[in-house]
Amino acid sequence: MTADCLVRFSGVSFTYQGTDAPAIADIDLKIGAGEWIAVLGSNGSGKSTLAKHFNALLLPTQGDCFVHGLNTKTEEGKRSARRSVSMVFQNPENQLIAAVVEEDVAFGPENLGLPPEKIRERVRWALEVSGLGKMARKPVYALSGGQKQRLALAGAIAQRTPCLVMDEATTMLDPKGRQDLMAVLSSLHAGGMTLVSITHRLEEILCCDRCIVLYGGRVAWEGTPEALFLLGEELARWGLEVPGMVKVWRMLLEEGLIRKGTPPRAEEMVEALCR
Hints:
This protein is an alpha/beta fold. The chain has one domain: Rossmann fold. The chain has 10 helices and 10 strands. The strands form 2 sheets. Strands 6-7-8-3-9-10 form a 6-stranded mixed sheet. The chain is globular and about 55 Å long. The model has no long low-confidence stretch (mean pLDDT 87).
């Protein structure tokens, strides 16, 4: 992570019209350029509401959100957020626009006013990275749910924003699809992109630099993935289910078969169990 602060939340609260209780409350958060953050929480914890503040789809009821130092409540700040943060939502149908795969990916770059050759270059790159390189001319309606999720990702990364926010983007994917998507995200992160993964799946946070747990619309905990896995009853209280691999990892730690500071990796755990 670099020292540059890309996104900052200062005392952010948001209350939907017609409701009394805030969906998120008193959120203080800094995300550095090049960092990979996981935001965890059960359904109703405020994750999606928080996500929509990153690119000014929602504006704080109280407090302020800054992207590149600009307040999203100002027109300049709102434009900065839209140029700097792209989104992938839980249901890809909500963000697919065109009838053909390559045309859908081109929509964002076209809106940026890029020249045709640059648009074609970005579309080819985004489709290859997302595993849809051979489907450029395929009708969107003919794609599977997992392929549509990949298409939504391709459309987001084709805009080449510094930050990508994924709101439960693996929900419609099977285990192999989730694994493939995590590999794509790891590659984007290695290339310097800032990533924010909104999820309730603990197994998806292994590659992240930092985790934030939301509970009741507030930040309940913040730390590294390893430190989160070491927590006990708090995880269940926050509505988070511990993956079986992590349970085995904790047992091996307690038995002294693997050293503390070793993240849960299947290969190392198998080796420890076979000693």
